[in-house]
Amino acid sequence: MNAFSEYFRGLAERAPRWDFIWLYDGSATDRILSGLWVTIQLSVICVVASLVIGFAGSMLQMSRHKIVRLCVSGYLQIFRNTPPLVQLLFFYFALGQFTPSYSPDGWTQIPIISNVGWAAIALSLFGAAFNVEIFRSGLEAVPHSTVEAADALGMSRWLIFSEIQFPLALRVCLPALSSNLINLVKTTSQAFAIAVPELLYQSASLWNDHPAAQNPTMLLLLIVYVGLVGILSLGLKFMERRMKVPGYGV
To answer: Is the predicted pLDDT of residue 246 greater than 80, yes or no?
Structure first.
């Protein structure tokens, strides 16, 4: 391990623009790893929350009540037609000032929703706005004749939905859902704008302190995001293959 560290330390002296400082300096390594961990946590939270909100929104969008459908439509218009970076800044700076705070020591005021929390909320709502339409299109793609046949067999509405409608709809919407979730993971890097200590934030902080580490750290960023998106993409492809029905959907 010492030989490995010494090699990259020597490389930094021989080629000053290629300082792989995070391979031989413990504090730099910790900063990169903590940023990577925040990126992974933020990605998982946003993906899961966007799926839950998206599915709930698709059900509300098919509600019999016009007011409910109008509310969902308004949400979609706002979050689909504005850049995610603008949404992040709006949530953190505009809504954040109304967030209640607490004081653990009687002096410091700490908001109950941190910048990480606002990033998770804003990005989840952004991703969910697209998931709503994806789930709705999948549910509407299930033939009415299939539902009517299940109803004629005496199946309850819940059983029809859980055993027939939803599984078939998921097969139809999975390719579009995969693209949106992959895009959402990449969008988490924009949390950098509100100082969320994710990977891009920590990387930029590192090369500001050590300018010679800029090129290697940018290369690391590229590799890490390719890896993260690749893992998610492979998992979703695996699901698509497992759920494939010949002649139907994916």
So the answer is: no
Query: Is residue 180's pLDDT more than 80?
Result: yes
For residues 143 and 220, is the Cβ–Cβ distance under 8 A? no
Q: Long-range contact list for 179-182, CB < 8 A, 24+ apart? A: 180/50, 180/127, 180/130, 180/131, 180/134, 181/47, 181/50, 181/51, 181/127, 181/232, 181/236, 182/229, 182/232, 182/233, 182/236
pLDDT at residue 89 in the model: 96
Please name every residue paired with 111 in a beta bridge, in sequence order, or none if there are none. 101
Q: How sure is the predictor about 13, in pLDDT bands with cuts at 50, 70 and 90?
A: confident
- Tell me: pLDDT of 249 over 60: no
The pLDDT score that the predictor gives to residue 248 is 58
Report which of 189, 190, 191 is spatially closest to residue 226, judged by C-alpha positions. Answer: 189
Question: CA distances (Å), 230 to each of 185, 227, 234, 236, in order?
Answer: 11, 5, 6, 10
